[in-house]
Amino acid sequence: VQLQASGGGLVQAGGSLRLSCAASGIIFSIHIMNWYRQAPGKQRELVATIASGGSTNYADSVKGRFTISRDNAKNTVYLQMNSLKFEDTAVYYCNSRRLVPWENSWGQGTLVTVSS
User: Is the dihedral of CA 34, 69, 99, 24 positive or negative?
Assistant: First the structure.
């Protein structure tokens, strides 16, 4: 399984970034896809989830600003991040998950830095 995240970078507060995560080695369409993030000195936290059927969930801290989407034809999940805040600064990780049988895989992370 390989999850290749990209799209991170440096952006000013109020700006936007779009993260991508390309998956291989899994049946992408049946996996739950997640974006997590880990800020310096903090625990990794779940940011957004998209189920195989397309339903989504978001952390309260990003609701209304971030949008997760998936393209099953391209085996890719996206995270559109708008109105970025300094506190969104973190390494963002792509995660794929299947419940039965259990499968759980992580990408390498992509750094998002928001300057205030």
Answer: negative
- Cβ–Cβ < 8 Å for 14, 114: no
* Residues facing residue 54 across a β-bridge: none
> Structure tokens of 115?
């300057």
- pLDDT per position as a tens digit, 5-33: 999 999 999 999 999 999 998 889 899 99
Within 8 A by CB and 6+ apart from 83, the residues are: 14, 16, 65
Element (H, E) at 58: strand 56-58
Asked if 31 and 97 count as a contact pair (C-beta separation under 8 A), the reply is yes
31 Rama sector, left if φ>0, alpha if ψ -120 to 50, beta otherwise: beta
Q: Of 77, 49, 81, nearest to 65 (Cα)?
A: 81
Strands 56-58 and 45-50: antiparallel
